[in-house]
Amino acid sequence: MGSTADKVKGTTNEAIGKAKQGVGEAVGSDRLQGEGAVQEIKGKGQKAVGDAKEATKDAVNKAAAAANKNL
């Protein structure tokens, strides 16, 4: 999966997780609040993976560009 896809899935999971927490709080469901918190954290992790992939790709591209200049 690409970095953009990871970021999109992460953002989606964060939003759904926050919504679940809000609904859980509104209806008094500790279980739904807990599921929402877990899903929100999962989303943050997915976004971090996407950021790491993007940073790695950028670093590789910069290194390749520098190597090409020296040729």
Write the layout of secondary structure elements.
Blueprint lengths: L2 H25 L2 H40 L2
Helix/strand class: mainly alpha
User: Which oligomerization state do the chains in this entry correspond to?
Assistant: single chain
The rounded Rg comes to 18 Å
What is the count of helical runs?
A: 2
Relative helix content: over 70%
Considering the chains and any ligands shown, give keywords for the structure.
0% strand, 71 residues, mainly alpha, 92% helix, single chain, rod-shaped, 2 helices
What do you see in this structure?
92% of the residues lie in helices and 0% in strands. It has 71 residues and is mainly α. Helix 1 (3-27) packs antiparallel against helix 2. The longest helix has 40 residues, at 30-69. The chain starts with a helix and ends with a helix. The mean pLDDT is 94.
